[in-house]
Design a protein that fits this description.
Helix content: 10-25%
Number of domains: 1
Order of helices and strands: HEEEEEEEEEE
Distance between the termini: 75 Å
Number of strands: 10
Low-confidence stretches: 15-22
Protein name: Yeast cell wall synthesis Kre9/Knh1-like N-terminal domain-containing protein
CATH class: Mainly Beta
Bound molecules: 2-acetamido-2-deoxy-beta-D-glucopyranose
Number of helices: 1
Shape: elongated
CATH architecture: Sandwich
Radius of gyration: 20 Å
Keywords: Signal
Strand content: 25-35%
């Protein structure tokens, strides 16, 4: 019985901690690119986001992926292919080089990955 009470106490402590320390989920709002943005292939451009109110701990890595017509472009949605990866989300911006193997179109978007993925509006990439 005493052992049962001991484990019950441990279980209670563990569950209280689980409630007291929720996992931070931070979805920073993308500022640029927006719907008026035009990127030129080969150009170095900034991706910027709202870095106010970050969580105390950022639990996941960071990446910028590229999509077309709201569909991830596989080549630019994987480690080694992201437009940028493993940068500091707290700085609020990261410079990326616009790929040169794209077609000119006005339906590109980026996904900024932190704890969760946040997608930009569609914007234009031209050559
Ligand atoms: C990106 O933003 C940073 C901070 O404002 C600035 O120092 C840098 O020159 C910008 N880079 C480009 C390519 O605009």
């Amino acid at each position: 019985m005493r052992l049962t009470a001991f484990f019950a106490t441990i279980a209670a402590i563990v569950s209280v901690n689980a409630i007291a320390v929720p996992r931070d989920v931070w979805v920073p709002r993308i500022i640029s690119p927006d719907s008026t943005t035009v990127w030129t292939m080969g150009q170095t451009v900034n991706v910027t986001w709202d870095n106010s109110n970050p969580p105390a701990v950022i639990t996941k890595g960071s990446a910028v992926a590229l999509n077309k017509a709201d569909i991830p472009i596989p080549k630019y949605n994987q480690p080694g292919g992201f437009l940028a990866e493993d940068f500091d989300l707290l700085t609020g911006f990261v410079e990326v080089t616009v790929p040169t193997d794209l077609e000119s179109a006005d339906d590109y978007s980026i996904t900024l990955f932190g704890d969760s993925g946040n997608r930009s509006p569609m914007f234009t990439i031209t050559n």
